[in-house]
Amino acid sequence: MKRASVILLVALLFPAASAFGANTQSSFSAARSLIEADSSPGNAYSAGFSVVRTAPVIGDLLVFSGSAVTAAPVSGDEVIIAGSIHSRAKVGGDFRAIGGRINIEEPIAGDLVAIGFSVRDSGRANGSVFIIAANADLTRGAAGPVTIYGNDVSLDGSFADNIDIIASGKVTLAASTTISGKLSYQAPEPATIPESVTVSGGIEYTSASYLPNVGTSRILAFMSIGFFLFVRILGALILAGLLAGLFPRLAETIVERAMTKRPSSILLTILLGFAVFIVTPVLFLLLALTFVGIGLAVLLSIGYALIVFLSLVYAGILLGGMFSRHYMRREMILWHDGVVGMLALSLISLVPFVGPLAVFFFAAFSAGSLLLAFFHSAFPSDEHTSEML
Question: Model-level pTM?
Fold first, then answer.
């Protein structure tokens, strides 16, 4: 495949380079909608959203457009890059095309190179044929060797040389197809070959399934889960670091409440968070039973989602702040405390049974602490109450 890619690159670039280096007279034209009705005595270069050429070209033709139609002969090489390509006239040299849909109706004197979603050749190339397409259809054969990479491949007509096919779908040969060389193809299932088909060089079939086996599927599943966990943990680390750095006072308030020596205060805070997580959704359902309460339930559900989200993030900040105060003897909460704590909490959550339960208690405590902090910030008990946010 690598060798074929190199050959394709050289084949595509060589004619363009030779055309630019030629000393013959050239014509250049560009417009949104371009119709070329005058013949070109030398090379012709056209660009536009829609290009239609109805006059012959004595030299080479290069077209870059959204839709390209050539209805007059080209004496030299023809290179077209477009979304839709229709070649309705003879080409005296090589034909190279890159596009979505490529349709070739007249013979090509040289080689054919086509890359597109759909490639149909109802002319006949006197040289080699190289096609990469989801659907490739050759209806009049070819005089040179044929190489096709695609999904569904259909062959018809007389082929004078070897044919190599790598297909991920079906390979079909029409009745009375003649192949003077050897037919070699790889596909998930054997090709449809009628009895009237003649292959002088023999047929070589290689079964190739492009669906992953059980082992590969298991590896891909583990890789997907691992990537998801990595992205989730990385996002949580970034959020914890940002919130801890932007609102250090709020983080310090939550950590101070957790570091208190009164177990009853810690227990009441956890129960408050537990009520937020469990009882609040029930309240939403009761409000939604009434027409007036539907709007209020929607608004409260948005606040509930925000509280749950902040509780999970501040649970990691809480864990990092407790670590810094207990082991590093530092009162101030820094952004990297949130990162370290969230990393530890993410690793704890991976432990079966115990991990999710521990995360739930940390999150419930954080939820209760956040509600108390917001309440005291909105209704301060005295004028010297510090700002929480």
Answer: 0.55
